[in-house]
Amino acid sequence: MRLPRVKFEHRPHRYDDGTIRIGGEIYGIAAEIADPYGWVWTALTLMDGTRSRDEIAERLRLSHPEVPDAASIVEQLVATRYVEDAAAGPPAGLSERELDRYSRNHAFFRAVDVAPRGDGWETQLRLKSARVVVLGLGGTGSHAAWALAAVGVGTIHCVDPDVVELSNLNRQVLFGEDDIGRPKAEAAVARLRTVNSDIRVTGERRHIGSRRQLDDLIAGYDALALCADRPTGHGIRVWANRACAAANIPWAGGGYNGPLVTVGCFAPGAGACYECLSSGEEARRRPGTPVNLGGPGVIATSAGVSGQLVAHALLGLLTGVPVPPAGTIQGVNLIAADHHVWVRHPPRPGCPVCGTRAPAGGPKHNSFRPRTEIDAG
Amino acid sequence: MNTNEHETEPVEETASPAKTKITIRLLDKIETTTSSNSVGN
After folding, report:
1. Phi, psi of A85 (to 5 degrees)
2. Quick one: pLDDT at residue A213?
3. What is the ipTM score, two decimals?
4. Residue of B5, B27, B30, B36 to mutate when probing chain A, most A C-beta within 10 A
């Protein structure tokens, strides 16, 4: 890093007792640094993008001759998420138009990235090179596909067997009245190309009726957004679980059961697979309880949250920014603000999909909020 | 050891300079507040 600069979003504040707050006030980013002698504050103040690390250390020594090792303070701060390199030029691989289009992405990723990087555009470049299949273009899939296109995923392939119906228009963001009767895949591709002409969008009207067909569909792609619920919500997720594990690609699947909206986030080699999580939840279910007590009710908000959560999970899976909660199901209950779904279970011993890493002592259920079982998609 | 304070510790005997360790403590959930400067555009 040639010219360290504290990121704009993380600019520090010094309290009266000398403690430094850095990274704002958001849990997961914000931090405090005890600084009784003012050394760190001076160093951070000097990191405005106009000085080299050596120059900052020298100025720090001049301001605080008692500092045992000024260079060490500078190096430690440079190694944090809160500092960027002001000397990093515009990234190769992104046009002026893309730099403008994705400027707010850049600010977001720069703020939430937990890894120190010289170039804050790395995340956007990873998205540009990513190839994602969106399977299902209903309530969840239409919102997910829109988000992935808007954020700049470089290649998106949209798949759905259905045509647009009037009853879809209460929630399926890619379609309008003029699209009624038109294949969803065709209408979605046309709409997404107007959202972002800097990416590649393709599609096909196709029903996925077997695991083998899903294997074929995802071949050559980097991730799957599973937004379909046929033949059954659970059945197609099992196919996705096995197909993506075999292809060694991550996937996210979302859905809703009335006001309960959830998304599962899975990556081979990182935590439990869908079948292990599902099995863990099944074991918690009261014996005799039907698997699906939900109904078809859905509105634009619940569908939107579902699709956006799927897209957000995929961003993390594709780039590591933010760090994805692989091997978990998370979600919200739109009629109970204090109900945050957070499902984790260990891999089952001998699971053919995710391995045999179950810890001794049986499964552990971890949650910081009331948990719930997997929704019905 | 108070992890919220600088620790000055010698690295190697007396020939090497002491190093100052900065401790950065991530805030806990309960310490964070609702953003007052959120934007919606």
Report:
1. -100, 110
2. 97
3. 0.72
4. B27
